Amino acid sequence: MAIYLLKFDEPAGDPSRPRCSARYYLGYSEDTKLPDRIRLHRQGLSGAALPTWFHSQGIGFRVVRVFWGATRSDERKIKDAGHFDRLDPTRSHALYRPPHLR
How many CB atoms lie under 10 A from the CB of residue 16? Predict the structure, then answer.
């Protein structure tokens, strides 16, 4: 299983109110199906609301991180912790790695 972090090219919502905007999406997939899952996100056909909305607005994304060998429980822990920008290696402060994935 792989957990992946998407970073959208533009935030959704009100950027002046960080708690009211979205720029990241955290998802999971079987390791071997990850390329297909990313392709479905790019086409707006994944069934996931946030990536589908971004696609409808013409906003692209990059895959900025993948945690290989993770579980759905790991995904839930990361989602519950929030602050996905801390997991983004393209940001200077993104040296954080969740304890359960070290």
Answer: 7
Query: What's this model's pTM, rounded to 2 decimal places?
Result: 0.83
Domain ranges of the chain: 2-101
- Asked if 56 and 12 count as a contact pair (C-beta separation under 8 A), the reply is no
Are the CB atoms for 14 and 83 separated by under 8 Å? Answer: no
Which residues, other chains included, contact 72 with Cβ-Cβ below 8 Å and sequence gap of 6+?
1, 28
* Helix, strand, or coil (residue 91): coil
> Looking at residue 58, what DSSP letter applies?
T
**Can you read off the two tokens belonging to residue 49?**
């609301």
* Model confidence pLDDT, tens digit, residues 35-67: 999 999 999 999 999 999 999 999 999 999 999
Q: What is the DSSP letter of 10?
A: E
